[in-house]
Amino acid sequence: MNYPSNSLGLKWDLVLDAFKFCVEADNRPYTRRGILSRVNSFFDPLGLIAPTTIQGRLLLRKVSSTEDWDSPLPKDLSDEWEHWVESLQDLNTLKVPWTYSPVPIYDASCKDIHVFSDASEKAIGTVAYIRTFDDDGNPHLGFIFGKSRLAPTQGHNILRLKLCAAVLAVEVAESIVQHLNANVSNNGDSTRMSQTVKRVSVSLQYLLSGLMSRQTRTLPI
Fold first, then answer.
1. Phi, psi of 27 (to 5 degrees)
2. Do residues 124 and 167 lie in contact, with contact meaning Cβ atoms separated by under 8 Å?
3. Integer Cα distance of 19 and 8 in angstroms
4. pTM of the predicted model, to two decimals?
5. What tens digit of pLDDT does each residue of 163-197 get?
6. Which of 25, 146, 165, 170 makes an SS bond possible with 47, Cβ 3.0 to 4.6 Å?
7. Which CATH class is domain 110-218?
8. What does 78-130 look like in DSSP terms, one character per residue?
């Protein structure tokens, strides 16, 4: 039989050599306290399920300013919460390989890191992948890291949020470059920010100038 082992708070499938999640049925009450408990129950340091957990955090934000800790959720929020909880069962089928690539990173004939970033009015996020090539020229793609954050509720337009996502992507890239010797390609909106400089305010131009300078040092374009 295959008995998963715990590693870094995640399940590790010893046979497939992959991370996996085991999500059990949720019996927490449909209250603000129950939502907080459920959202914080996931330990995901690599951002493997960031697109899923960010939805729970968005719902928690909705109830944080209107509901008491132990008051039942209104019908509309209760339905939304129930739908999200049911969707968590799909995580039981998720398996992410433990290694970045079947080819050892330092033995690959070529390796590139690709960082994507984007933003909406609700959240910002970034994700990094590594692409390696073996001696026969066959490509292999591996997940490295993902990160998401709730967008501020006010005082920001979509351009500002995309700038924040670009900064987050550069921070992730800098961290990866410190540990892996590979070329980095940024595929987010930050690579096109220089085209928007005339559309932003003076304060944003200072932020953009610093971002592009930082990006040039980290991401060869």
1. -115, 15
2. no
3. 10
4. 0.76
5. 888 888 888 888 887 777 666 555 555 444 444 43
6. 146
7. alpha beta
8. HHHHHHHHHHGGGGGG-EEESSS-SS-GGG-SEEEEEEEEEE-SSEEEEEEEE
Question: H/E element holding 161?
Answer: helix 158-177
**What is residue 214's predicted lDDT score, i.e. its pLDDT?**
55
Task: Please list, in sequence order, all residues whose beta carbon lies within 8 angstroms of the beta carbon of residue 29, skipping any fewer than 6 positions away.
Answer: 70, 72
pLDDT in tens, 17-67: 888 888 877 778 888 888 888 888 888 888 999 999 999 999 888 887 666
- Contact yes or no for 131/111 (Cβ under 8 A): yes
Q: Which amino acid would we find at residue 215? A: Q
Other Cβ atoms closer than 10 A to 95: 14
CA distance linking residue 92 with residue 218, whole number of Å: 36
Domain extents in the chain: 5-96, 110-218
Pairing of strands 183-186, 110-119: parallel
Which amino acid, 199?
R
